[in-house]
From TrEMBL:
One Pfam family here: TPP_enzyme_N
MF annotations from Gene Ontology: acetolactate synthase activity; flavin adenine dinucleotide binding; hydrolase activity, acting on acid carbon-carbon bonds, in ketonic substances; magnesium ion binding; thiamine pyrophosphate binding
Single GO biological process annotation from the record: isoleucine biosynthetic process
Protein name: 3D-(3,5/4)-trihydroxycyclohexane-1,2-dione acylhydrolase (Decyclizing)
């Protein structure tokens, strides 16, 4: 057997550079690069190794470890999980900074390879700088925090252990069902140790997606269930986009006359003007989609986890005899809530399910209802998003301005707070992947870093990041990275002076405004933050506008800019779209001295009666 002597870190770098992916006949590197912030736990080992392969596997420097991992995750999502990135950090805070991002990837079923430095395997210098010591277990390090948020975890204490570890990592990262974050904790002394590795370990490997075909029995049972339906309804999740199943979904919905509601991850599966597309479903759903969901007797859930925002905390589907068909590549999701499963790839599953339903179509009256509800919703949505001259516009009015100045190929990026709900209802997605929301983990701070990852995945599309002042203050450093890398973003910052979304929720559950908006916090002086000046100090072009009209002018200028632009506009923290939507289970205190809480508790108990538990 022919071998080559390398350090463990050099073996990692060389192996990653040899992994390829075939996308529509074009062979590309599977790993588009490595994000790295170096410290004593990885600079000598991984730093030296990555320098050696920098022409084949580029290394990108970020400003925050969580931010760079968010960028890597967004890159994978925008690449339909066909390409990915790795992230390396030092031991200690650099490593644990990535734990939140690992949770984002885990929830959203997105591939990212995390390579944090770890303690010395030989333990001679223990405790080393930044080492967490367990008083009861000598095998534990800070990196054990990654275990519950990793699909696969390994600690590499000997150089030869990296061979099976990387092979297992690739099996997880490229598996459509098991896909998620992989953490390989690299003991810092082991990174520098040499071993005679088989040359075959570094042979080029081309990965293609596995498309699992449905089981014949599951398919037949699901088809029979759908044939019995009088009011079928489709919920399209992120799995539709990961699979590239948009056309299959459009064909299925058209052929069988079934309307489609989209989750946050599934939005842009259908163009907004497709006859079957009723837009968002659930807590932040359109009036059209929710009207059909409430009456549906069979719900066809395609590529969705059916989380509580999608199901209205399991109170949305009101037909007491309704059944679910779960079409999902992961059996764990396909079988939720006593669903009839079809464990299969979304595209193949829809195609074969359509064949099994040959000649069947939903009743015309049901399809006509969907058309009517969609017309009514579009009319309602326009009232919320139309231009205005008010001093403090709503989020929806800002969204309307962004929409009017956008192109069909643009990508809008957002994450936590009130904006995702307003975007879910009102944004008109025209092209697949044109709507990029992180709402599985709802992680504040994802927005700008995520926008950078999207731009790296598809540099030919305009990327518009919408972010609140709260999320911007949590993480804005990758705005500087976007400037440094020449990856232009347009960032629209809506300043409502606090956490407006949670303030509204606080009041809706009977509470007094407290500790959310800046004016209601414990303070000596209220900050008057100049976000434009801050963004300019990071190297971005920046401006503050005073009206919707000025915002539209600024957005047009930003489109022609050569580097990232941040546009700030003050907004009203109290206004949200009250059309559409659905109840969400947020527990209200049973006892309180506040009469408002007591009243909210009664409403809460009434709403609980609509929940479907255990089915």
């Amino acid at each position: 057997m022919s071998t080559i002597r390398l350090t463990m870190a050099q073996a990692v770098a060389r192996f990653l550079a040899a992994q390829k992916t075939d996308i529509d006949g074009e062979v590309l590197p599977l790993f588009a690069g490595v994000w790295g912030i170096f410290g004593h736990g990885n600079v000598a080992g991984m730093g030296e190794a990555l320098h050696g392969v920098r022409e084949r596997l580029p290394t990108y420097r970020a400003h925050n470890e969580q931010g760079m991992a968010h960028a890597a995750i967004a890159f994978a999502k925008a690449s339909r999980r066909r390409r990915m990135m790795a992230c390396t950090t030092s031991i200690g805070p650099g490593a644990t900074n990535m734990v939140t991002a690992a949770a984002v990837a885990h929830v959203n079923r997105l591939p990212v390879l995390l390579l944090p430095g770890d303690v010395f395997a030989n333990r001679r210098p223990d405790p080393v700088l930044q080492q967490i010591e367990s008083f009861s277990d000598g095998t534990i390090s800070a990196n054990d925090c990654f275990k519950p948020v990793s699909r696969y975890f390994d600690r590499i204490a000997r150089p030869e252990q990296i061979i099976p570890a990387l092979q297992r990592a690739m099996a997880v990262l490229t598996d459509p069902a098991e896909c998620g974050p992989v953490t390989l904790a690299l003991c810092q002394d082991t990174q520098a140790e040499a071993y005679d590795y088989p040359e075959s370990f570094f042979a080029e490997k081309v990965w293609t997606p596995r498309r699992i075909r449905p089981d014949a029995d599951e398919l037949a049972k699901a088809a029979a269930l759908i044939r019995s339906a009088k009011k079928p309804f489709i919920v399209a999740g992120g799995g539709v986009l990961y699979s590239g199943a948009e056309q299959a979904l459009a064909d299925f919905a058209t052929k069988h006359g079934i309307a489609v509601g989209e989750t946050q991850a599934g939005k842009s599966s259908l163009a907004h003007d497709h006859p079957a597309c009723l837009g968002s479903v659930g807590v932040t759903g359109t009036g059209a989609a929710n009207a059909l969901a409430e009456e549906a007797d069979v719900v066809i859930a395609v590529g969705t986890r059916l989380q509580d925002f999608t199901t209205g905390s399991w109170a949305l589907f009101k037909d007491p005899s309704r059944r679910i068909v779960g079409l999902n590549v992961q059996g764990f999701d396909a079988m939720k809530h006593s669903a009839q499963p079809i464990v299969a790839d979304a595209r193949v599953g829809l195609e074969e399910l359509s064949q099994a339903l040959q000649g069947w179509k939903a009743p015309e009256a049901w399809t006509a209802k969907a058309r009517d509800e969609k017309t009514r919703w579009f009319e309602a949505s326009a009232r919320y998003t139309d231009p205005t001259n008010v001093e403090l516009p709503s989020d929806a009015q800002v969204i309307g301005a962004v929409q009017r100045t956008s192109s069909p190929s643009d990508v809008v990026v957002c994450a936590a707070g009130g904006l995702p709900g307003e975007l879910h209802k009102h944004w008109k997605a025209s092209a697949p992947l044109g709507y990029h929301l992180e709402y599985g983990y709802s992680c504040m701070g994802y927005e700008i870093a995520g926008g950078l990852g999207v731009k790296m995945a598809d540099p030919n599309r305009e990327v518009i990041v919408m972010v609140g002042d709260g999320s911007y203050l949590m993480m804005n450093s990758e705005l500087a990275t976007s400037v440094m890398l020449g990856r232009k973003l347009t960032v629209v910052l809506l300043d409502n002076r606090g956490y407006g979304c949670i303030n509204r929720l606080q009041r809706a559950t009977g509470g007094e405004s407290f500790n959310n908006l800046l004016q209601h916090t414990n303070h000596v002086t209220l900050p008057d933050i100049d976000f434009a000046a801050h963004a300019a100090s990071l190297g971005a072009q920046a401006m503050k506008v005073k009206s919707i009209g000025e915002l539209e002018d600024a957005l047009k200028k930003a489109r022609g800019a050569e580097r990232s632009t941040l546009i700030v506009i003050d907004t009203d923290p109290l206004i949200a779209t009250d059309a559409g939507g659905h109840w969400w289970d947020v527990a209200v205190p049973e006892v309180s001295v506040r009469s408002e809480v007591t009243a909210a508790r009664k409403d809460y108990e009434n709403a609980l009666a609509s929940q479907r538990v255990g089915d």
